[in-house]
What we know:
The protein has 438 residues and is of the alpha+beta class.
Amino acid sequence: MASGVAIRRIATAVLGATAVAVGVSIAVEASSLVKLDGSWKARIVKAKEARAKPARGSLYQPVAFADLPGWAQDDHLAAFKAFLKSCERVTANAREKAAADKGPAPSSALVAACSEASRVAGQIKSSDGARAFFEKNFTPSAVVHNGKPGLLTGYYEPVLKGSRTPQGPYRTPIYKRPPDLVTVIPETHRGAVKAGTLTHVRKTEKGNEPYFTRAQIDQGALKGKGLELLYFADTVDVFFMQIQGSGRVQLTDGTSIRVHYDGKNGHPYSSIGRYLIDKAMLAADKVSLDALAIWLKADLERAKAVMWHNASYVFFRELKGDEAGAPLGALNVPLTPGRSLALDPSHHPLGLPVYVSAPTMKHVHKTAPFNRLMVGQDVGSAIKGPERGDIYFGSGEAAGKLAGVTKHAGRFFVLVPKDAAARTEAAPDNAAAQKTKQ
Length: 438
């Protein structure tokens, strides 16, 4: 949460050529709280331009489009439409960062690629035309690193029943963003912080302090402050909606609304699935989203203590108007099922196209194996690493089932924007002549 959606993560909850340096800075301009000598103290982290330094231990190694498994068979038009959604925000971010001289800005090459996409959007009507656009403006690059092997999981937007007022079974609230909550790490870079770093804090008369934990909030730390947004019947469902970072809510009056991540309490996310495995309360080979939900709902008092192990707590806002058409990612653009990818912004800038190959992923309809051009549009607190990705599958029960069984090895091929001088003269209407030999 999608992010910005900070979203969640189901599977996480359940548990030769010249190398080119990865152009992402992991530093963020913000004051954050770290624990020093047993107490919380402020630390200033300086920002760099988004392309200034390589991520530690990661390289982009150029390859040919012909080297991408299944490249010719993908629906490039669907990928182009997802990429185009990001471009307005990428361009706006570049202007805002330049004007404020603050925070990591998108690279000039990515901004140029977005400008070109906007210019030719009306001409691109087919997958071949979209494919020609990507082949003209980008260089495919394998991600070379010494970290953990690539891993893909999934997330989705749950659909729940709720009420605007506490009535009948609807007694568990979700909260609006409190006025004393301060964001100290930009939402687009929450996934890039070091373990233990607080991303949000509480402003008090004495200065910034860690915000209330999940346990403290559940026990009434925010009660009576007028922050209740909606009420639900099931505390476990609310817990999972917070992990996802968004939700569609069917209200008691028959209307339906969409709620979206609007900050968190700043405490690090902790997987309760991993916690249950480590405590021998669930067998590792038996853990799934359904199994976890059944275990929690079987004993709510027992579940409460386990859910409190994850001190992270998400706040929501109601989406209205044009915003309410789809859940939003951290880039603040509508997410596209099967094309929006959450990734680690310390390795890859948001808005970048990423070709994902997962040979063993065969449960996604009409995709076996999974080879697809996606767009980095979201982040997640648990999404860390150069080839760690979280696929947005859509809204509702069917999407949830896909997300719940997604935990597969995968490879990233990042499409690096070319400098203007390096672009070919291929035009979208000459797509047939520009096809890469397969």
